[in-house]
Every structure is written in C-alpha cells, then in structure tokens.
Amino acid sequence: MTQVKKLWPLLTATHHYDKSLSTRGRGQGQIIEAPILAYLLETANGRILYDVGCDYHKIADKKQQQHYYDPEIFPFGPPEMDESQRLPAHLARMGLTPADVDVVFIGHLHFDHAGGLCDVCGTEVHVQHNEMEAAKSGLDIAYFPDDFTGQYPWKIMNGEYDVAPGVRAISTPGHTAGHMSLWIELPKGPPVILCGDAADLSENITDEVPPGLCWQEQEDQAIASIRKLKALATDENAILWPNHDISFWRTLNQFPKFHE
Ligand SMILES: [Zn+2]
Predict the structure, then answer these.
(1) Angle CA(139)–CA(142)–CA(147) in degrees, nearest 5?
(2) pLDDT of residue 150
(3) Cα 112 to ligand 1 centroid, rounded to whole Å
C-alpha cells in the first residue's frame, strides 16, 4: 500500500527558449516559456523532493550569471528566478525547512534540475551511477559541474527501485544517460508519473517526439523511454505529467492546494 499522502508541484523558475530544445527537429524559431519545477511528496514516513531546480546564485549574481550562462551556449538567456522561488522559500510557506526533507531524488543532473542542491544540503541525494559519470564527463554543456561536485550525502543507485512504498524510480534514459522518472501512487486519485525531461511537453508524449538534447544523440533511446512511460500509464491507468509544459503546469494544483 502506498505511503504517499500529498504531492505538490513547485515552480522554481521559468525559462524562455527555442521550442526545438524540447521537441527534437520541431519548432525551430518558436520561443516557448517553460516552467522549471520541483515536486514535493509527503509520505507517511517522510518527505521526498523530485528535482531541485536551478542554483539561484548563478542567476542572481551578475558575475556568476555571465560565467555560467554564456550567451554562446544560452542565446535565450538564463532562466528567470526570484528569491521567493528558491526551495527554502517554498518550504517556508508550507511551514517547513530544508531539514524537513528526507530524500532528494534527482531525475537527472542538468543545471535546471540539480542546481538547487546547495539549498537543501544535508539531505540524502539519490542519483544514478551512470548519470553521475555522464555529468562528470564534460561531454554535455547542460551540466554545471559545481552543482553536483560538492560534499552531498549521495546515494548512488543503479536501475529501478522503490524509493518508498508507492514511489518507484523508473529508468528513462535518452535525454541523459541515467535519466529517471518517478511513479507515484496517490492515496485517492490515479497514479501520477513524473516524466522529468523524458517528456518536456505533452506533445513529446502524444507524438512520441524525443527531447531536443539526447545523450550522445541516442534519440532512439529517448523515444523508447517515451513509449515505455506511455505503456506503463496505459497498463496502470496512470497520468503522465510532462515536465516543462506551461499549459499543463497551469492545470495542476498549486500550494496551498495539492494532489492526493
Ligand atoms: Zn530540464
């Protein structure tokens, strides 16, 4: 039986960029607004965060911003993020502090998913072994090495496993080498699958379009992961939540509301 009680999507920043970064080979020249999300899960035995958004300092500090968001690599500029969107601020509105989070589960280590680790330091961090290896390889510029080279209490994992009863880590490589989605059994509603960047937009799911960035250009692996998630959702009557889809995000319950 699931231990999950509540689920909240948390808006940690927004980013404008070319749609082809979300849909490979589609939407060039079309700028989209993308939410950068973290998700907080309350379970009977503690709290789990899926992803932690960006490192606020790398955006707010002009010098750091120039260094990390080089216009050559980020022609659309850095994400827009204010102090109230940092995780400690989200948690404070819920009457919590980072110490009340028991597990941080990182779907992948790109800058908009792992940068906020510095705001929840001290909490155990789950990540896949091959994701960490790929992130450290320097072969993908969407990793900011100092986001994840600090002394965090890492729990390096291999493959799929139950994070808690009712919360299962699902392997969905393609966008990155060790990308993981999260299956969440809610106490009342249908199960939710946080796709992570296996599917940025609803369109990635319906049309089976891979994300713009694929690890070592393995778009077949990315498509296979989308099909895997779709099959799982069909078999188990689960809802797939795309990760950077502003229209979809607007349909979700925001704090103080929640999903259950
Ligand atoms: Zn992302």
Answers:
(1) 100
(2) 86
(3) 5
